[in-house]
Amino acid sequence: MTAGDNGRLPGSYLVPGSSSFADFVAEQAPDLLPARRTPPPAGVEAPHGTTIVAATFDGGVVMAGDRRATMGNIIAQRDIEKVYPADEYSCVGIAGTAGLAVEMVRLFQTELEHYEKIEGIPLSLDGKANRLATLIRGNLGMAMQGLAVVPLFAGYDLRHEGGRIFSYDVTGGRYEEQAFYSVGSGSLFARGSLKKLYHESMPEDDCVTAVVQALYDAADDDSATGGLDLTRRIFPVVAIVTADGYRRVADADVAELADRIVASRMVRPDGPAASLT
To answer: pLDDT exceeding 70 applies to what percent of the chain?
Structure first.
């Protein structure tokens, strides 16, 4: 995707067409798309991201991801970031093959920015969720080779004035989740934790605490999920999306919360009990 010999853009770049950046790249330079690349030989291990958790609260949605990437039984990276802003009012968390997932997130970010520049308005939250489903569907060939990418998408819906969560399967199937959800190897344990901690009327701070507690429980039972690393001071990435937009919770605030959670677990290792009221 470079300029011609005379320094000008090729004519095909100037022809009006789809507002989808991914469709444009697929037509002009398909080899640049992550899904079009030659897969590695069978049996080659690639780093994988694991557990992502999201939950809605009255006013928005919280998403958090642990920091561990694994390669088989090896910890490939201890401080990988798995939660990214998709645009001003949405975020995406990656699970699956880490390298492909990060590239897909970058393409998704560009896709949303390109659409807004071409059309003059941002996509609706449903439209964003559908665009991500299309990118995942394009990766199906890689997924069949064992290089699956299964993100979790969440955002604040300006039309409905509330947080929403979307999950996917490897074929690009899109599913809207209610209240909370988790993906990755520790997702079963994280969702079990949230079942006892979550309630619809919880404020923002309590929702942040609940998702970090859920990641703690996931790491307690799943070896591929990274826990709260007090020694290295490595803690989950936590993002909040509200009517004011996307913001990442400061590392110092997450560290303070993690210290409180670990201290409480010294007294009650299995975590807080579910409220019966």
So the answer is: 84
Amino acid identity, position 256:
E
45-267 fold: Glutamine Phosphoribosylpyrophosphate, subunit 1, domain 1 (3.60.20)
Residue spans of the domains in the chain: they are 45-267
| 98/82 Cα distance (integer angstroms) | 9
Cite the active site residues: 50
The answer to whether residue 277 scores a pLDDT higher than 60 is no
Q: What is the mean pLDDT of residues 152-175?
A: 95
What's the average model confidence in pLDDT over 50-67?
96
Confidence of residue 20 (pLDDT cuts 50, 70, 90): confident
What is the chain written as a DSSP string? ----TTSSPPGGGGS---S-HHHHHHHH-GGGSGGGSPPPPTT----EE--EEEEEETTEEEEEE---EEETTEEEESS---EEEEETTEEEE--EEHHHHHHHHHHHHHHHHHHHHHHSSPPPHHHHHHHHHHHHHHTHHHHHTT--B--EEEEEETTTTEEEEEEE-TT--EEEESSEEEESTTHHHHHHHHHHH--TT--HHHHHHHHHHHHHHHHHH-TTS---BTTTTB--EEEEEETTEEEEPPHHHHHHHHHHHHHHHHH-TT-PPPP--
Q: Which pLDDT belongs to residue 142?
A: 79
